[in-house]
Write a structure and sequence with these properties.
The chain is of the alpha+beta class and 123 residues long. The protein has two domains: 52 residues; 57 residues, no CATH class. Helices cover 39% and strands 11% of the residues. The chain is built from three helices and two strands; from the N terminus they run ααββα. Strands 1-2 form a two-stranded antiparallel sheet. α1 runs antiparallel to α2.
Length: 123
């Protein structure tokens, strides 16, 4: 993973340089070479690696979501997003953070608030 993150950092720096050159008119889109690989593919690879030993939330359950394991959130390989937003209500050191609610997490939160049964979520 360290190598992937290093490559990611380099790719972001290169993307910023290209964007700056385009904005300043130093280069045109037609002047750019077609890249051998894309930043999007690299991000996809990193996301898959993260899902093999999940640390996407603060629970850091280390479950292998790619191969059917479910973590605390009960989310596996596929996630159906019900909402997402920049969250401004945390400690200043981590604001803004990005919050994603999937359907199962939303149901678990509602059950906790309402005192309803969690039978429908399997939790």
């Amino acid at each position: 993973m360290d190598e992937l993150w290093r490559l990611h950092g380099e790719a972001l720096e290169k993307e910023s340089e290209v964007e700056r050159s385009l904005d300043e008119g130093k280069v045109c889109y037609s002047d750019l070479e077609v890249p051998k690989s894309s930043l999007l593919h690299l991000k996809s690879t990193i996301a898959h690696k993260l899902m093999e030993s999940c640390v996407l939330c603060e629970r850091r359950c280390m479950k292998d979501r790619l191969h059917g394991e479910l973590g605390y959130c009960r989310v596996g390989k596929e996630m159906y997003v019900s909402s997402y937003f920049d969250h401004m209500g945390e400690e200043p050191e981590i604001v803004p953070s990005f919050t994603v609610y999937d359907q199962k997490s939303a149901e678990l939160a509602w059950d906790a608030i309402s005192g309803a049964s969690t039978a429908r979520t399997g939790a």
